[in-house]
Write a structure and sequence with these properties.
Chain B: Belongs to the ABC transporter superfamily. Chain B: InterPro entries: AAA+_ATPase (IPR003593), ABC_transporter-like_ATP-bd (IPR003439), ABC_transporter-like_CS (IPR017871), ABC_transporter_ATP-binding (IPR050763), DrrA1/2-like_C (IPR025302), P-loop_NTPase (IPR027417). The complex is a heterodimer of chains A (530) and B (302). Chain A is mainly α and 530 residues long. Chain A contains 22 helices and no strands. Chain A folds into 2 domains: 203 residues; 248 residues, no CATH class. Chain A is globular and about 70 Å long. Chain B folds into 2 domains: 214 residues, 3-Layer(aba) Sandwich (Rossmann fold), CATH 3.40.50.300; 70 residues, Alpha-Beta Plaits. Helix content of chain B is 32%, strand content 31%. In chain B, strand 9 and strand 10 form a beta hairpin. Classes of the chains: A mainly alpha (530), B alpha/beta (302).
Chain lengths: 530, 302
Amino acid sequence: MNGRHFKGTTQVTKIIFRAQRIKICAWILGIVLVTLAVAYSYPNVYQDDVSKKGFAITMQNPAMVAMLGPGYDEADYFVTVGTQFAHEMLLFTIIAVAVMSILLVGSSTRTDEETGRIEVVRSLPVGRLSYLAASLIVVAIANFLITLFCSIGLYLLNIDGITLQSALLYGGILGVGGLFFGIITALFAQVSPTSRGTTGLSFGVLVVAYLVRAFGDVTSETIAFASPLGWLVRTDVFINNNWWPILLTTLFSVIISFFAFYLNSIRDIDAGFLPSMKGKTHASKFLMTVFGLAFRLQKVKMLSWGVGIFALSASFGAVLGDLETYFSEMEFLQLFFNEQSKVSMTDNFISLLMAIMSLIVAIPVTMTILKLKSEETHNRTENFFSRVISRNHVLSSYTLLAVLESIYLQFLLAIGLWVASSVSLQVAMKSSFIYLPALWLMISLSVMLYGAVPKIMNLIWIYVAFCFIVIYLSEMLNFPLWLRNVSAFESIPNLPAAGMSWSAIIVEFILTIAFSLIGFVSYNRRDLKG
Amino acid sequence: MNVVDVNELTKKFGKFVALDRINLCIKEGEIYGFIGPNGAGKSTTIRVLLGMLRPTSGEAKIFGKDVWKNAVDIHKQIAYVPGDANLWPNLTGGEVIDIFLKMRGSGSQSKRNELIERFKLDPSKKCKEYSKGNRQKIALISAFASDAQMFILDEPTSGLDPLMERIFQECVLEAKEQGKSVLLSSHILSEVEKLCEKISIIREGKIIETGTLTQMRHLTRTNLTVQTKKPIESLALKGVFNLVKQNNDLTFQVDSEEIDGVIRYISDYGILKLESVPPTLEDLFMRHYEGVDGNSTGGESQ
């Protein structure tokens, strides 16, 4: 590797930055705003010592540790609200930044290569490694800006106990963590021959890193050290401010990026290191249907999400037993939390878990409808519509696939919880399937957007993000009830913690049918791009 | 009966008029050429015919049925080949051909295998591994393996090598022999000249010329090269263009209807040599590409 290979990196960086600027701005804005809004509202949440103790004990229970990381010693929660904020926000913000980085690097490496853009750029007098270098520079800049804005913002909020150094550390964790996963993606972009494989493998690493950390945080620290997320949640930020996890992650990032550059320099364009095999010369009966084809195109995605959902749910199921013992030993907590003493902490936790997991399920389910839009922009739906296939046939096939996918994923979610815990199958199924109406509402919203105004279809992700914010932060941010109920997931009865109620479900059903109808009717009336 | 009947068809995208009162009429068993510069509206017309774009006004019918309302019904008898076959990257060529045949609802396996053989396609490769020409073959094979009555071909040979282009032309002629109709939009004018009986030229959303090649030739100029005993001093006649003097040869173009007068005039100088070349489609087309006004008269000889 010498300097020639990087010739032209500056210009390529500008091109990539220009191509991705809207995405980058949206991500940075979203992450920074949520971080600062939550930090701003924290000092007013747990004000007296009793509630701080309550918070400390809740957060230290095994289920919460598995979900959010090890946190702090109980005394630390009294020192500064920064600790409460960090324990609740840090890990999930790192994950959000990691998702951003994976998507950015994925689309500016393998996707650009697949679509032939890299070929065009490489035919110009630029070095062989310039595109990869530029893509990493862009993701580094995005992560640096997140670090910068979050650090300065946190510092300027003037919260007791958040010093400049600790604010910088907090922002630094986010940036370094995000960059690490961006570089992992750059590595997979060399190994896998497709863009979907690249992002898929990178998300796989993220999920495994999360699970290893969760398992390690609950059982033994040594195991947690096998995961970069395990390092990053051990900075003791706002208390001891350890910088070694930042250095360690940076060191690994540098090593992995060298490896990615090396692989990039020895491979052919459009090639990966995984071999491609000969395929079938005939299509199966199932593949020859629109539904079968739609399924085939999404099979890998559905399988990997299934594995991920099952693994997450089983992991949380595994700590449920510990949770019950933990709480039964804490009389104080029983008094503090169980206003309705009939409801056990376990039930509360199951309800929360199911709500969050169902919202995660909404992501692949929405992607299934979005796939149809991508088929249209790639001029592949004309393959249907120039033949004896109606628009209703195509749209209903995709809708049906999304509905079946939602049932399949909610089923795996319930099974995961059931096999790993003492929760009965019936309770697991009920508390999981109760979210189907919300998922179907999500599907019908996507169908409506696709049918009526496909141009703005990506706005559905803003709605998904909003639902996450409601579930996770609405208390913190003091959302009024009506705003909370805009989220389809909020009005679903929290089984098993709360009782069953049909009214919200019926409303969601009616909305689902209305949105779907609008979607189908508009789809039949509008021009098709291709 | 007319297979395709397009009447005063207009398509607007917002304020932009993509198609402006277009008329098209294709008879049974006819190969109809559709030519025009990039962005003239060829593909938009075809998309309307396929029921993918909704006409703003006017009507378009295939087999006497409205193309927007009865799209699915009409497509039972239609085979379409796009100029850029967009296929699913992870499916093999063989799988895609099967899917396409099934979705048409007709077509024979033996014809499929025969065409795969003729076009020399390896059906076991994934679509992302095919070159552009090979992807085009997949669309052609699935079209010609069907028993459609009407073929809509939108620059179907882009990316094909000359050998494959010849096989494509054979396939089109075979279809014609079976009484099928073809709408062929193409930039390869030699191909259109070879295959099509009737041609429409579209420019900026308007059809500016329609007719058989013979009729169109009649409308334009013939290339003449003459050598005379006495040198011709000037040839400022009506209908003479692009006069070039080279050695003893005089080369120029004549409007078809003025040929008689021009020949009479020249013969007075004692003709030694007279060569006449009919205008190629390219000549016709170039005039429209370059936007020359075909009605201008006068000998602006050089």
